[in-house]
């Protein structure tokens, strides 16, 4: 076991997979010499050389388009975009080529490609640096989308993503890159893509979250420890494919459902989860499902960001209100 931050676990995993598989290449804007804007890939170029860890122009379409060619021709590219809000010039490659290649070629070609993106707010960044854009990827058939909330899951999900023969978008919650440490096995292991985790069992309310908001959710639950509320907490971990079965079975037990996410409210993942809960557990509900989300506005600049972000206090308030609904 080694004690790692979420950022450290990602760096460790990339190094481990590159050591085991010479077809794995890591590249992106400043991903080589500088080790990325957050230093997630620090040290990899020095160890593996410029042919396997390299910098690219500031051209997201070229970064992702070149990954298509690499993957088709036998490599396992791990592309880094500096921030998820910068991905729009490359979204065409994701939606029209990367997600569709297996279907287009009727299975002749697969794209074992990982697209890494720091996402979310909470670091007082500038415009286009703080968006939570899960919905834009979850809506595209042919893509998988994972979001770790702990160092353990960061390693297991990234290992599974690199080994997957289909494209995986790997969102990295930058707010918690260095927020805490956790013991992580040094040997290789995988966390199953498409499987949520029951973090805490309970019988009164089901609460679902992921990424950086999972940390806020757990703080909220801790703040309610003296209340007479038994809270079941689920870390969704994979947005697509979504493990709605675990969520629905939990709601059948508790009868109350709350989802907390950083993205804006309208057409967010929370809406999809509530729809699936209604479809699968409607007659078990004892209260209307609740979404705790950011407002439907552009992420404010640093001085106003705290008005946008949801926090443990707000989540706790909504949990208590939901638990007491009659």
List the defining traits of the structure above.
7-stranded mixed beta sheet, Rossmann fold, 2 domains, alpha/beta, 326 residues, 12 helices, 5-stranded mixed beta sheet, 20% strand
Number of contiguous helices? 12
Rg to the nearest angstrom? 20 Å
Distance between the termini: 47 Å
3D shape: globular
Task: Describe it.
The chain has twelve helices and 14 strands. Helix 8 (212-223) packs across helix 12 and helix 9 crosses helix 10 (269-281). The protein has two domains: 2-184, Rossmann fold (3-Layer(aba) Sandwich), CATH 3.40.50.970; 197-323, Rossmann fold, CATH 3.40.50. With 326 residues, it is of the alpha/beta class. It has a seven-stranded mixed beta sheet with strand order 3-2-4-5-7-6-12, sandwiched between helices. A five-stranded mixed beta sheet has the order 9-11-10-13-14, with helices on both faces. The chain has helices at residues 6-20, 44-48, 60-72, 88-98, 101-104, 134-138, 151-163, 212-223, 244-254, 269-281, 305-308, 312-323, and strands spanning 2-5, 24-28, 53-55, 76-80, 114-119, 144-146, 168-173, 181-184, 197-200, 205-209, 231-235, 238-240, 257-264, 290-294.
């Amino acid at each position: 076991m080694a004690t790692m931050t979420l950022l450290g676990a990602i760096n460790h995993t990339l190094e481990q997979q590159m050591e085991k598989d010479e077809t794995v290449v890591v590249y992106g804007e400043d991903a080589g010499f500088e080790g990325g804007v957050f230093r997630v890939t620090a040290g990899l170029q020095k160890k593996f050389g410029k042919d396997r860890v390299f910098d690219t122009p500031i051209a997201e379409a070229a970064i992702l388009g070149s990954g298509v060619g690499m993957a088709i021709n036998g490599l396992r590219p791990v592309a880094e975009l500096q921030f998820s809000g910068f991905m729009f010039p490359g979204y065409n490659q994701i939606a029209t080529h990367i997600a569709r290649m297996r279907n287009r070629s009727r299975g002749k070609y697969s794209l074992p490609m990982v697209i890494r993106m720091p996402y979310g707010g909470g670091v007082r960044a500038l415009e286009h640096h703080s968006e939570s854009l899960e919905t834009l990827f979850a809506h595209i058939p042919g893509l998988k989308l994972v979001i770790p909330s702990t160092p353990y899951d960061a390693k297991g999900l990234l290992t599974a993503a690199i080994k997957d023969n289909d494209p995986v978008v790997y969102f990295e919650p930058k707010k918690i890159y260095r927020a805490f440490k956790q013991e992580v096995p040094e040997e290789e292991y995988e966390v199953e893509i498409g499987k949520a985790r029951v973090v805490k069992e309970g019988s009164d309310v089901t609460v679902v979250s992921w990424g950086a908001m999972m940390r806020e959710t757990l703080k909220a639950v801790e703040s309610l420890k003296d209340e007479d509320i038994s809270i079941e907490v689920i870390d969704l971990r994979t947005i697509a494919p979504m493990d709605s079965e675990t969520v629905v079975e939990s709601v059948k037990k508790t009868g109350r459902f709350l989802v907390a996410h950083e993205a804006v409210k309208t057409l967010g993942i929370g809406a999809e989860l509530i729809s699936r809960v209604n479809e699968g557990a409607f007659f078990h509900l004892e209260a209307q499902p609740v979404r705790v989300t950011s407002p439907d506005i552009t992420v404010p600049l640093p001085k106003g960001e705290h008005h946008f972000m949801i926090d443990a206090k707000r989540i706790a308030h909504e949990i208590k209100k939901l638990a007491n609904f009659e």
